[in-house]
Amino acid sequence: MSGLPAETDRFTAELDAAVEAHMNWTRRILRCAVVRSTPGDDVLDPQAHALCHFGNWFMANRGQFEMLDAAAAGRVDAVHQAMHDAIRSICTRVMQGQPGSEADLETFEQSQGELIGLLARFKTLILSKAVQLDPLTQLPLRYGIENDFRLYQKEARRNRTQLYVAIIDVDHFKPINDTYGHPVGDRVLQQLAATLKAALRADEPLYRYGGEEFLWLLKCKSGAEARQSARRLLATVGTTPVPIDDEETLRLTVTLGLALAGEQEDLASVIKRADLALYEGKAAGRNRYVIAEG
Ligand SMILES: Nc1nc2c(ncn2[C@@H]2O[C@H](COP(=O)(O)OP(=O)(O)OP(=O)(O)O)[C@@H](O)[C@H]2O)c(=O)[nH]1
């Protein structure tokens, strides 16, 4: 174990394995070209880039790559396909008894070099992002919000869906610290983070935004769906007891301030509106959600 979250360990191990599989594939093709044996359907298929082990794995995880760097993820796709196209052309010619073209060989070598470089950069990004996780709750800290928000905003524009920014603030948290002590307060925050994370969909990121504040990017189709999600979250928090020790449990409530992100609005402006809605919810008695006026 690296000490990093298990999810990061799994992802980087899979990334290494996928790169290794591609290198083995390259060796196999080289061998076929030298001894002029048939490289197999998986190489000659025009969709080979989507059928190989790496291509399959990349497509299944493309969302994660895009979250890290959308432009570089698109480039991985393009150079990987260029690599496969070049090798298919080389193999086809060799099997017809002709020498492969130098231009194809150059494309293949350049694409492979760029692909390996891109993947190494992604690995660095994944590891540095893991270091940006809050050690208490294991939730991402605020560094990545800007990038994720822009991606989701673009996706909402493309799909004609909606993106809400929600700030979730624990109600009356100070008395918990004052009554039970800071370490218990820490454990309560930890448990709450796990409850919130479990209640949200996997593609709705949740960040530890501040001390006892969380930020949630909520993707939905309508205002009605956003209200339903907010109500569900309040109900989950309200009905999940938080153990303090062997005998005592607490019931927590949270208040949510939500704002619908405008198509071109920047994150700071949406957060400001969500924050105002949150204060409104606190003033109105807490344990509720308020959606900012458009
Ligand atoms: N244990 C613990 N406490 C924290 C942490 N971060 C912030 N806090 C505490 O969270 C409390 C926030 O208090 P307030 O802002 O007054 O809010 P509140 O008591 O939750 O009241 P309302 O938000 O108005 O409902 C403060 O006592 C902070 O010390 C943390 O990481 N661990």
UniProtKB/TrEMBL annotation:
GO MF term set: diguanylate cyclase activity
Domain GGDEF: start-end pairs: 161-294
Gene3D superfamilies to which the protein is assigned, alphabetical: 3.30.70.270, Aspartate receptor, ligand-binding domain
NCBIfam families, per database record: GGDEF
Protein name per the record: diguanylate cyclase
Catalytic activity field: 2 GTP = 3',3'-c-di-GMP + 2 diphosphate
InterPro entries xref list: Diguanylate_Cyclase (IPR050469), GGDEF_dom (IPR000160), Nucleotide_cyclase (IPR029787), Rev_trsase/Diguanyl_cyclase (IPR043128)
Enzyme Commission designation: 2.7.7.65
Enzyme class per UniProt: transferase
Residues annotated as transmembrane: none
Top-rank lineage group of the source organism: Bacteria
Keyword Membrane set for record: no
Coiled-coil region list: none
